[in-house]
Amino acid sequence: MDSKLFLTMAALAAAVVAAAAGTTSDYVRPPPRGIINLSSSSESEPPSSPRQVHISLAGANHMRISWMTRDKQSPSVVQYGTSSKNYTSTAQGESTGYNYLTYKSGKIHHTVIGPLRDGTLYFYRCGGGGPEFQLRTPPSKFPVTFAVAGDLGQTGWTRSTLGHIAGSKHDLLLLPGDLSYADYMQPLWDSFGELVQPLASMRPWMVTQGNHDKEEVPLLKHSFLSYNSRWKMPYKESNSNSNLYYSFDSAGVHVIMLGSYTDYDVQSDQYNWLKADLSQVNRGRTPWILVLLHVPWYNSNEAHQGEGDRMMAAMEPLLHAAAVDVVFSGHVHAYERSKGVFNGKSDPCGSVHITIGDGGNREGLARWYKGNQPEWSVFREASFGHGELNVVNSTHAFWSWHRNNDDEPVMSDQVWIKSLVSSGCLAKKNNVVRKLLKET
């Protein structure tokens, strides 16, 4: 992008944002659409046919291909190459499965392929046969674009959101929890996998868990059995002991996925892992840090008030010490964007918090905001939709929020975000605060 054009765009966007500061949209969204159930859509396919294909990052220059088959003998093999029908490489993976009360899953395959070239189109097929899929690996350098959508579910609005994301030029998708809204009805996990396959098989989907993914049955089933079996993330690659929290790098961005529904106090494994992870980030190589979690820490909606307070009390000092740029959350079925904020107040060296729990879930929208909009809250709106974060370079990123206006996307909020490192915030942290990241 031409530097003069870039600065002009930044100035115009800043003026628009300043004029809209403290805005509560009066937009009114119609009720949620019905559930889409595709759980029986694969019954006519051969048992060995790969279904519910989705991909995720699996360490530097590697990708994990995940899929399910009804045939328990089907191999966990992926053949791939850079031209159609010409598979020059083969990778062998692993498989799992699970029983949930009366439900028995198919064979769930996870196979890591690579090393792969950045920004390259690959063709692949799963299980040694079946249809050909294609994926594009993310770039190794700026710019890089993240699509963001939370609390997806599988309704007509979900399909609309997915269609809008498909029309965007994103490199990977971030999902801050509540995927399928199966809520114990396991065939809905299969249906969700079918619904998202067209997108999730082409670009990496990086997810963290929400309350609707928990599905615990006391004394019978542990929490997140279905989620962990189906959506394997690169936790081992990031030195985590749990699939519920992990990190990864993409271009010049370090992304941290946290678990709102596993221990997070200062004595917990997750807290100690987060501290170690943040202390090892090289801001010369990854000048941006993003964090995703399910329950928002800053929320002026009437829904789910205070639910993130304990996690925020434990972990916000770590994020502030490390100059985390943006925190994305879900859970509240509405959109809200804050200024840089820390300890309950606006702070130019604090993280921008964005609540985006409104991908299309069946529960509908959280329409009611608190009457007095907090000074840290910039824009809030109850609508279904998705967001896009285009990290242009080491200093600037462009965030836009696209609501589903009937079946057309409308950009109703936008802002240029300057990285906290380029703003001098990391250098300004006093030694007492920065010491948090070095304590053992």
Automatic annotation (TrEMBL):
Every Purple acid phosphatase C-terminal domain range: 352-407
Keyword Signal set for record: yes
GO molecular function: acid phosphatase activity; metal ion binding
EC number(s) from the headed UniProt entry: 3.1.3.2
Signal sequence range: 1-21
Domain Calcineurin-like phosphoesterase span(s) in chain numbering: 145-335
CDD domains the UniProt entry points to: MPP_PAPs
Gene3D superfamilies: 3.60.21.10, Purple acid phosphatase-like, N-terminal
Catalytic activity: a phosphate monoester + H2O = an alcohol + phosphate
Domain Purple acid phosphatase N-terminal: 50-137
Cofactor: Fe cation; Zn(2+)
Keyword Hydrolase: yes
Stretches for region Disordered: 30-52
Record key words, sorted: Glycoprotein, Hydrolase, Signal, Zinc
Top-rank taxon, per record: Eukaryota
Enzyme class: hydrolase
PANTHER family in alphabetical order: ACID PHOSPHATASE RELATED, PURPLE ACID PHOSPHATASE 18
Family of this protein: Belongs to the metallophosphoesterase superfamily. Purple acid phosphatase family.
Protein name: Purple acid phosphatase
